[in-house]
Amino acid sequence: MEPRKITEGVFWAGAVDRDRRLFDSLIPLPDGTSYNAYIVTGTEKTALLDTVDPSKIHELMARLEKTAKIDYVVAHHAEQDHSGALPAVLEKYKEAIVVASPKGKELLIDHLHIAEGRVKTVADGEKLPLGGKTLEFIHTPWVHWPETICTFLEEDGILFSCDLFGSHLSFSGIYIEDEQKVCEASKRYFSEVMMPFRPTIRKHLERFAKYDIKTIAPSHGPVYKDPRCIMDSHAEWVSDKVRNSAVIAFATMHGSTEALSEALSEALWRKGVEVEVFNLAHADLGKLAMSLVDAATIVIGSPTVLGGAHPLAVSAAFLVNALRPKLRFASIIGSLGWAGRMPEQLTSNMGNLKAEMLAPVLVKGKPREADFAEIERLARAIAAKHKEAGLF
Ligand code: FEO
Predict the structure, then answer these.
(1) How far is the CA of 163 from the centre of ligand 1 (A)?
(2) Residues 208 and 328 in one domain
(3) CATH of the domain at 304
(4) Backbone φ, ψ for residue 48 (5° rounding)
(5) What share of the chain is helix, strand, coil (3-state, %, to 5)?
(6) b/e per residue, 335-368, with b = 16+ CB within 10 A?
(7) How crowded is residue 120: how many other Cβ atoms within 10 Å of its Cβ?
(8) What DSSP assignment string belongs to 226-286?
(9) Is the pTM of this model over 0.90?
(10) Domain of 207?
């Protein structure tokens, strides 16, 4: 295995993980992923930017076989998919010094037991000359952890952006030419990993404006030869703009909540609102997250189970709450059976949302005509709110 050349003195030396199907025991990876490490070689010093997931140490080591000396290992982020092979690299390259933010140093010591003396901390804006190649470190906390930094390679205009701008895609080579495919994958990735940090990313994007970025080399997925599409997409995703669209995510046991969800979907569509419907029993959580990037409304549907909301609906509400999408409106629909605290449970799980709660539609047992009239009322209310907000 050889490092793959990006430009003179800059190489991709990571690992593609085509078979990985789950991240953090939560995020589905339909297209696998990659852990990107890069080598930057100056006339005097060599830096390795990030490592790989521990499961791929052997691939990283194979790509480093002909690299006799590494002076610095830049650890952008202490999460193990990038720093997991750091101990093995430090074992092989005894002189190498780890470069990290002060918070990064702390986390590397805690998570990987890296010896304190081997870590050099760098300030925001600090530069590290390698001889004809200059690395500038940009502190970008909370994309994805509090310690995260990016590196700008001055001479080549390459931004090594760590998790930011990434995508969970496996690939051959370095690039994927199909921009549509990469943008779709990075929207999915943004929704799953970055969406909770929207206001922070907005500030980071403003700071990047002063750099002449010609290439973006993230830590997951292919390298972007032309950064415009991915930067413009992110600017859109982190903005407060929402689309005229509603997401209905429901669990159902005997079909009642499903019937309400389908009726709501139909009624919204008739009123000109785009709708995406997810049956939580087999929904792809990545697609659900993606639909929330710019949706204006969410409706969660649940039956009552053992006196409360269905666990799948609770889990969806919890996830939506954690992802903090820019939703403007929310509601709850479902079949109560005979009693229960379903609506209160779901509402209390969505405390982070700044969405206006619209009156729920709660039905006893199998929905009757009057219940479908209530669904129609909810659809009218959602459409009116979207109109008021100027969404259509
Ligand atoms: Fe790809 Fe936050 O690690």
Answers:
(1) 5
(2) no
(3) 3.40.50.360
(4) -105, 125
(5) 35, 25, 40
(6) bbbeebebbebbbebbeebebeebebbbbeeebe
(7) 13
(8) S-HHHHHHHHHHHSS---SEEEEEE--SSSHHHHHHHHHHHHHHHTT-EEEEEETTT--HH
(9) yes
(10) 4-238
- How many angstroms separate the CA atoms of 379 and 388, rounded? 14
Closest CA to 281 of 306, 317, 313: 313
Per-residue confidence in pLDDT tens, the chain, 392 aa:
999 999 999 999 999 999 999 998 888 999 999 999 999 999 999 999 999 999 999 999 999 999 999 999 999 999 999 999 999 999 999 999 999 999 999 999 999 999 999 999 999 999 999 999 999 999 999 999 999 999 999 999 999 999 999 999 999 999 988 888 898 999 999 999 999 999 999 999 999 999 999 999 999 999 999 899 899 999 999 999 999 999 999 999 999 999 999 999 999 999 999 999 999 999 999 999 999 999 999 999 999 998 899 999 999 999 999 999 999 999 999 998 877 789 999 999 999 999 999 999 999 999 999 999 999 999 999 999 999 999 99
Nearest ligand 1 atom, CA 144: 2
The pairing of strands 33-35 and 304-305 is unpaired
* Max intra-chain CA distance, the chain: 78
Kindly give the distance from the C-alpha atom of residue 25 to the centroid of ligand 1, in angstroms, as a whole number.
13
Listed residue (71, 58, 86, 55) closest to 1, CA to CA: 58
Answer with the one of 183, 212, 238 that is the final residue of a domain: 238
Residue 338, in any domain of the structure: yes
220 CB under 6 A from ligand 1?
Answer: yes
Residues 268, 155, single domain; the answer is: no
**CB of 20 closer than 6 A to ligand 1?**
no
